[in-house]
Amino acid sequence: MSLPKLRAAIIPVTPFQQNCTLLWCMETNQAAVIDPGGDLDHVLKAIEQTEVNVQKIVLTHGHIDHAGGAAELAAKLSVSVEGPHRDDLFLLEDLERSGRSYGLVGSKNMVPDRWLEEGDQLAVGNLRFKVLHCPGHSPGSVAFVNEANKFAVVGDVLFNGSIGRTDLPRGDHATLLTSIVTKLMPLDDDVAFICGHGPTSTIGHERATNPFLRGAA
Questions:
Q1: What is the number of domains present in the chain?
Q2: Range(s) of the domain holding residue 185
Q3: Is the pTM of this model over 0.85?
Q4: Does 1 map to a domain?
């Protein structure tokens, strides 16, 4: 049985150079926009160039650089928003104020159409992703794993050579490490992932080289 294939395009947005991801199923051409933090003209251009059919917007967590453009983009595309975990509601309800403080015009407070919980499934065309609740960077952070294609999107939980910051409201370093060790490190070494900022990596590379995980994974 052949597996549904996926493709992904990274669109850096906002002054934080956040990795907004356009993810689509090659069998159906149906797509999701993950973490449209802003610069929606860039996101819309990528959608036009790839000629995909966006079905939903997905959020890994509620910080402004990931969620600031979600409400506006959802309205423009007439699609729903899924994620993050409901523990990030306090961040989503503060997007307008946070956007003003960072000069991100157009940010709107929002509540997703669907909260995501540990063990839920996220569908993109024929692709299925397991939802992992990974608090620590924010209390409602989630990651998405497609084990069949050895692929994940992890937001700001884990980076190439680093981990998410925990000095923002309701961040917690010990909780973040526990999330990484118990939720992401059990994945196979060859699972590639897109993180919220910077270059992609694999679970095996981070297991072997990430200085923040020494003695923890």
A1: 1
A2: 6-213
A3: yes
A4: no
Q: Which long-range contacts (CB under 8 A, 24 or more apart) does 145-150 make?
A: 145/187, 145/191, 146/6, 147/187, 147/188, 147/191, 148/3, 148/4, 149/3, 149/4, 149/5, 149/6, 150/188, 150/190, 150/191, 150/192
In this structure, what CATH number is given to the domain that contains residue 42? 3.60.15.10
Q: Along the 217 residues of the chain, how does pLDDT read in single tens digits? A: 466 799 999 999 999 999 999 999 999 999 999 999 999 999 999 999 999 999 999 999 999 999 999 999 999 999 999 999 999 999 999 999 999 999 888 899 999 999 999 999 999 999 999 999 999 999 999 999 999 999 999 999 999 999 999 999 999 999 999 999 999 999 999 999 999 999 999 999 999 999 999 877 5
